[in-house]
Amino acid sequence: MINQENSQITLKGNEMIEFENFKWRPTEVEDLDFVIELEKEGYPYVLKWSKDKHKEAINNNDIKHLILCEEYEKIGYCILAGFEKGNDNIEIKRIVISEKNRGIGRKSLEALIKYLFEKMEIHRVWLDYHEFNEVGAYLYESMGFKKDGVLRESLKFEGKYYDVVVLSMLENEYLKK
Asked: Phi and psi dihedrals of 35, rounded to 5?
């Protein structure tokens, strides 16, 4: 369940999302070594992209590629997609936080969701996770995401096939919390 009261966000321009002593800001090319390193640490829960693919994402108007900072230190990144599709559905393509077991993942995801529903007036936020990501599954479902379905054996990892679970949250579900 999303704690709307604790995730006070401030927007600067329409790109910066600030909450507590954290902020989401646009990724710059200089940040990509950090992003690539986080992907290595997050693998296999987060699949790896090349630096060129991340550069393409930074320059794609359909995507918001963001860095999470605590004070001035980079501690995570995320990729949101679907801004130009016109159907008010945004995908949380990736979210990776280096700081574990401090609740930062939950707080940062709450701030993103609040921004999407309250400031951008999105209708639906969705994401997927690999079936072996039990921590992610617990987090997303505890925040109110509902299971849309399962892409059966759609991920091949180390010679074995795994399901990918798709979850979403609708605006009216968010507003009820």
From this structure: -60, -45
